[in-house]
Amino acid sequence: MCGIVAYIGSKQCQQLLLEGLKRLEYRGYDSAGMAVLDGSKITLARAVGKVSNLEDKLEETGGMRGTLGLAHTRWATHGGVTEANAHPHTDDRVGIALIHNGIIENYASLKTYLEEKGHVFKSQTDTEVLAMLIGELYEGDLEKAVQAALREVTGAYSIAVICEKEPDTLVVARKGSPLMLGIGNGEFIVGSDPSAIIAHTTQAVPLEDYTVAKVTRSGFRTSDIHDVPVTPKVMQLEMDLEQIELGSFGHFMQKEIFEQPKALRNTMRGRLDTREGRVVLGGVSKFDKELTKTRRVTLTGQGTALHAAMIGEYLLEDLAKIPAVAEYASEFRYRNPIVEDNTVVIAVSQSGETADTLAALREAKERGALAMGVVNVVGSSIARETDAGVYLRVGPEIGVASTKAFVGQVAVLSMLTIYLGRKRYLSADQCADLMREMELIPEKMERILESDARIRKVTERYIDRENWLFLGRGYNYPTALEGALKLKEISYIHAEGMPAAEMKHGPIALINDGMPAVFIANRGRQYDKVMSNIQEVKARGGRIIAVATEGDEQIKRLADEVLFVPDIAEPLSPMLTVVPLQLMAYHAAVLRGHDVDKPRNLAKSVTVE
Ligand code: F6R
Fold it and tell me: Is residue 262 flagged as an active site residue?
């Protein structure tokens, strides 16, 4: 979604801001803009489309000079994708420029109030209302004006504000939308995401909700919106530049698919004690007493994270024998859910900032559940608000289509299952067997990745087909959903995923001559049933692409294409079977000439409802 980068220091900041915007491009956006304050004058530029359009514009107009500035990538919510709606927005009174992520929910009433006071608006955005309000309340102190304005606002925001009357001040604030203040050497860099600041510093203060920071060239102070001082917590960013750079890969998605074996090794490192048959999870163990009493687990998330949560549901019931259900966070939060005593809610999220998942978590906490997080981004909102949690440790995920985070989520949920199962029905030997299987996954994944060229060839054969089915059963039903989501989100091919048996209840009508049906048909308890489903599709002219277990001769006779994966215990199989599906989606998008890392309409982190 929208991205923020801001700078105050001694360097000319135009280039630095542009580089920050480029690092935020992966989040998804449709326009970009920048404002730089040079002594007493703000210069502003905005452009629809890519950051490179803004760059061209700056070049044409001779660029901007100044050592204090803001820049933004906008993902439209209020008002269409136009230059007038792009940020920064300005007021019409004192020379304020502002950028904003989030949504000001009461913007309509504030706008009416401001119009009555004579302010004239140039955009359709909620953000311009906030810029005007700060201007209206300005009495010679930008920090105070921002605090006063934010006291009037409902909704979510992270903002950065400058004012022509205060050339040594940058004011930033946050509620419900991430923002961090990077502390450099005689300079400060603000970013909505660490990737915007990591090139300059690894020391940062992640702002808490309702915190306002006044930043000058010599230091900063943090307070709440009522001006009560807040003690800043400085943290060390664990990201390095190499992790957020492409290296020799064509796209971040491709890099991240190929990084999965390494990422999984990191996820598991130090957590599997096969000798004792137990999993070691530091962020959970202090709640052991409560966890032993767990009567029910609700797993929640959106998109890919929900698919991982669904696998978690199967794992917890099948292996740990704990009643579990996976549910869209967006449904859970509004449906008045029953949360019984001893319920654990697990929020699954790569970014830790997904608005619906965060809200579902808060709802569950409010109703007395123990809140657990399975999150990738350290220090993110969900990570901070959960009672207990396990980080994925897969490193920054830049590609909009989630890949390595998915396998990290499934790996963490597998470990959590063993952890909780050991407290109930699983023996130390059973746990050790599962853990030994887990340890082999990275190596098995590497073998699948070696067949990349073949997977590309298979994809090429079906690239003109506009409708695809993805079918699986049991643990690999969520994998089928994930395969379909990957294909549709980056290649814009219509794809549906479903339990293989469900096909007969309607979707079978779609099957026509040559329609690709991807079956996840690895060895498992329902193998024979999947074989029957394959026959049903084949009989109607569908083309079968099967993901199957190495050495399966039977499937070779049935399927048009077979993509083999190494043998593995069924509950852990989604971590392997998903890999060929990720590669197929990737190649389909490349073959169709799409921008894999910036799919249309999508944002990396969905921080609005
Ligand atoms: C799909 C994808 C999305 C996210 C979803 C949740 O490839 O990336 O479906 O999985 O928006 O995001 P997080 O995991 O950040 O909560």
Answer: no
Distance CA(94)–CA(537), nearest Å, equals 68
Does the pTM surpass 0.70? The reply is: yes
Ligand 1 centre to CA of 56 (Å) is 32
CA distances from 433 to 265, 274, 278, 354, 382 (A): 17, 8, 11, 35, 32
Same domain for 414 and 289: yes
- Residue 41's beta-bridge partner residues? 38
What token pair was written down for 116?
């009555």
Active site residue 13: no
Q: Is 602 domain-assigned? A: no
Report if residue 84 sits inside a domain. yes
Do 307 and 482 touch, CB atoms closer than 8 A?
Answer: yes
Q: Residues lining ligand 1, judged by CB closer than 6 Å?
A: 301-305, 349-351, 354, 357, 401-402, 485, 489, 605-606
**Per-residue pLDDT tens digits for 76-108:** 888 889 999 999 999 999 999 999 998 899 999
Reported confidence tier of residue 602, pLDDT bands at 50, 70, 90:
confident
pLDDT band at 156 (very low <50, low <70, confident <90, very high): confident
What confidence tier does 597 reach under pLDDT thresholds 50, 70, 90? confident
Same domain, 236 and 253: no
Domain with 111, as residue range(s), is 3-242
In a domain, 363, yes or no: yes
- Of 296, 572, 311, the closest CA to residue 431 belongs to 572
Look at residue 115 in the predicted model and tell me its pLDDT: 96
- Which of 430, 448, 466 finishes a domain? 448
- Of 2, 13, 163, 431, which one is the catalytic site residue? 2
